[in-house]
Amino acid sequence: MELDTPTLLLDRNKLDQNLEEMSRFAVENNVRLRPHIKTHKSVNIAKLQLQAGAVGITCAKIGEAEVMAAAGIKDILIAYPISADLKIQRLRKLLENNVDLKVSVDSLEQLKSLQKGLEDTPFMLEVWIKVNSGLNRCGVEPGNEVVELAQAIVFLSKLRLGGVFTHAGHSYAAKSSEEIQRIGLEEAKAVVESAEACEKVGIPVPIRSVGSTPTYKFAGKVKGINEIRPGNAVFFDAIQAGLGVSNLERCAVTVLGGVAGVYKNRIVFDTGSKTLCLDKGAHGNNTVNGFGHVIHHPEVTIERLSEEHGVGIFDETTSLTLKDKVQIIPNHVCTVVNQFNEYIVHDGSKVIDVWNIDARGMIK
């Protein structure tokens, strides 16, 4: 089967290895696994994760949750604060369809909006308090602010507290494995101490959940943590390899690109920014060289991207010629996946299936 370019390739053997690694860690450390599907956005892969022992899934946006719910996946955490009236109407529809829904909360104003939006329904919504463990994005501060929010939830008729969680995304800016470990331990501490503070005033917190592919193996071992939510670990990518979290050989997704031109001091691939995206690191840390790793061609660095062109440079010479095809490991696989409609699934030597990227473009 000849494939056109650019095409998104998924190595089934590497995918299965990555799925097994997450599941094994969860079993060995007696924690629940609730993987984030924003990396793969695929019903097929989400169901494989559930078959491998995941208790449910995590979504970034309501649109992703709607796609997964329509496919029969019912235990869903939306790890994003929701307060707009239009979005609460969509939450109501998910509840009407018997979705076991959990939603992130991090402010009193948001609690009021959710309560008001559900008051004329028979539903009670489970909410999880988002704690800021250092990323300084969403979330209340650990300790007292968590307790104050938990106390407010207790008095609301349409909301119930199900958990405390965080995401240590700032681990992507770490300069060493030791720093990643430190961030992971701080991540767990923020959740555990916040949950314990709630329980000291008589408010139970059943779930204490941590995420982040770089940190989950550190945070997930801390006493008191009982759930992990890795996302990128389903595939890995060049940034994870740059961080030392994984290696390039474990990356399950590549982009099949074509050589569109070879010149004296440069080579052009048909994989521009609309294919490879512009990530060169995360949260201030440039962990990669160029805009993707060209497999078997270390002499080539993809130096710059325009929309349809990936411009590579090389030292002295390259064996690549016009019309050749290459596989490129993306820097940040999550954003690249969202550019494609489907995965071409292969076993390393031949194509074995085609899977839809069902939640592609679901950004609302």
Descriptive account of the structure:
By secondary structure, this protein is of the alpha/beta class. It has two domains: 12-234, Alanine racemase (TIM Barrel), CATH 3.20.20.10; 248-356, Lyase, Ornithine Decarboxylase, Chain A, domain 1. The protein is 31% helix and 25% strand. Strands 1, 10, 11, 14, 15, 16, 17, 18 and 19 form a nine-stranded mixed sheet that branches. Helix 4 crosses helix 5 (108-118). The mean pLDDT is 97.
Distance from N terminus to C terminus (CA atoms, Å) equals: 36 Å
* Quantity of strands, as a count: 19
- Helical content (DSSP H or I, runs of 4+): 25-40%
Mean pLDDT: 97
CATH superfamily of the largest domain: Alanine racemase
Beta fraction of the residues?
A: 15-25%
Give the SSE order as H and E letters: EHEHEHEHEHEHEHEHEHEEHEEEEEEHEE
Largest sheet: 9 strands, mixed
Low-confidence stretches: none
Q: Tell me the domain tally.
A: 2
CATH topology of the largest domain: TIM Barrel
Please write the CATH class name of the largest domain: Alpha Beta
Gyration radius, rounded: 22 Å
Going by CATH, the architecture of the largest domain would be: Alpha-Beta Barrel
